[in-house]
Design brief:
By secondary structure, the protein is mainly alpha-helical. It has a two-stranded antiparallel ribbon with strand order 1-2. α3 packs antiparallel against α9. The relative contact order is 0.13.
Length: about 450
């Protein structure tokens, strides 16, 4: 279609220049050609890729994230952890249909969308978004809406009431996630200011990481934290989960191209390179610090690399992706070990250390390594130093809104229904106490 448009406009220009048609006659025709180009046209190839990407991103939450987290908790809480991820998938799907999609992507103001698409009103068999059915776009974005609150689970395992967790996730998704998504991707002010977030560095990872930090601070430390062993009960599950996250992330990042094109290919390549670089840098830093490279470390490093390349995937070249990955592995290791112990908070599965720190690293370095050759604006290395500040502005807005709103939501829930299970339940284990089931 693009080639047809260019050929049509060139032909009209030639005819006008040679006097075959007047410039006045050529202008309306040129406008008509432009209108044809602006009309969305269904692409079977793009639709097929987006259907595939949607399934891949859904796999990131269940079973990917569920197994990744489930393997890291103690045996007495593994079913509760799996249950939280599974239930969030179900609840968020319904909430997205009722109001989330409308608040994120319908026409509104610079801060939040309107209510015109509540209950997916107007989403029909024939409605299109870009070159795909709107139904596919709705479902693709729904998978982001699912995994973002599910990431928070890792910070609050072992001690939160299941009922309170569900209420928090519903309120948080509508009050925090949907507006920030609108700010960046739905026509809001951060996207308008030029913040680069290809697949969710701010919208997903910084957002979830900050909320996770607030949650674990408000909830307090687990019983026995610092005096009892809280080692992962099954690292085999964790590695399987991390591997599923890695594969699913290609849908996350390459799918955010919203087309089966060269940019999707570059995003996929950048994702693979950054992930490998981060896994290796975490492994080598841990090896030097502790004398042994751990399975949990290399898996966590890979996830840190996936997080950091998320905002940059469609904006950087392979060299930039490698640098982002290496930096993420080192800084996420620091965040999950030194920073946590220095500040003394109990982020059980290092959600802030990996997703919060990794998201911030990736968002800032997107402003450094963004390349015009990939598409869009260049970054600091191409003479556009202002892009770094624009990225920092996006980070700051996300940190403040996610942090403050999460704190208020938690305090209200604690006042109304309580957040934390009692000590006896926590010591016994949430699997038996809350679900009546145990792992044998």
């Amino acid at each position: 279609m693009k080639k047809l448009q260019l050929l049509g406009l060139a032909s009209l220009g030639l005819l006008a220049a040679t006097g075959v048609v007047s410039a006045q006659d050529a202008a309306p025709a040129a406008e008509a050609v432009a209108v044809v180009e602006e009309t969305p046209t269904l692409s079977a190839g793009d639709t097929a890729w987006m259907l595939t990407s949607t399934a891949l991103v859904l796999m990131m939450t269940i079973p990917g994230l569920a197994l990744f987290y489930g393997g890291m908790v103690r045996r007495k809480n593994v079913l509760n952890t799996l249950m939280q991820c599974f239930a969030i998938c179900c609840v968020m799907s319904v909430v997205w249909m009722i109001a989330g999609y409308s608040l994120a992507f319908s026409e509104g103001n610079a801060y939040v969308g309107g209510l015109s698409k509540m209950f997916l009103r107007g989403v029909t068999l024939d409605s299109l978004t870009l070159t795909m059915p709107e139904t596919v776009f709705v479902t693709f974005q729904m998978t982001f809406f699912i995994i973002t609150p599910a990431l928070i689970v890792g910070a609050i395992v072992d001690r939160i009431k299941f009922s309170s967790m569900l209420v928090f996730m519903v309120l948080w998704s509508l009050i925090v996630y949907a507006p920030i998504c609108h700010w960046v991707w739905g026509g809001g002010f951060l996207g308008g200011d030029g913040v680069l977030d290809y697949a969710g560095g701010t919208v997903v990872h910084i957002n979830a990481g900050i909320a996770a930090l607030v949650c674990c601070i408000v909830l307090g430390k687990r019983v026995g934290f610092g005096s009892e062993s809280m080692a992962p009960h099954n690292l085999t599950l964790t590695v399987i989960g991390a591997s599923m996250l890695w594969v699913g992330w290609f849908g996350f990042n390459a799918g955010s191209a919203a087309a089966a094109d060269a940019r999707a290919g570059m995003a996929m390549l950048a994702t693979q390179i950054a992930t490998a670089g981060a896994a290796l840098s975490w492994m080598f830093v841990e090896w030097m610090a502790k004398g042994k490279p751990s399975v949990l470390g290399i898996a966590s490093g890979a996830v840190g690399g996936l997080v950091a390349i998320t905002p940059a995937a469609g904006f950087v070249l392979p060299g930039g992706a490698l640098m982002i990955g290496i930096a993420a592995g080192i800084l996420c290791y620091w965040g999950a070990t030194s920073l946590k112990h220095m500040l003394g908070y109990d982020d059980a599965l290092d959600v802030f250390g990996v997703h919060g720190i990794g998201g911030i690293v990736g968002a800032v370095l997107t402003g450094v390594f963004a390349a015009e050759a990939v598409g869009g604006t260049g970054g600091l290395l191409e003479g556009n130093a202002a892009q770094v500040w624009i990225q920092i502005k996006g980070i700051l807005w996300t940190v403040v809104w996610s942090g403050v709103a999460s704190f208020v939501i938690l305090k209200v829930i604690d006042l109304v229904m309580g957040l934390r299970v009692d000590k006896e339940t926590e010591v016994e284990g949430l699997d038996l106490a809350l679900h009546g089931e145990v792992v044998h």
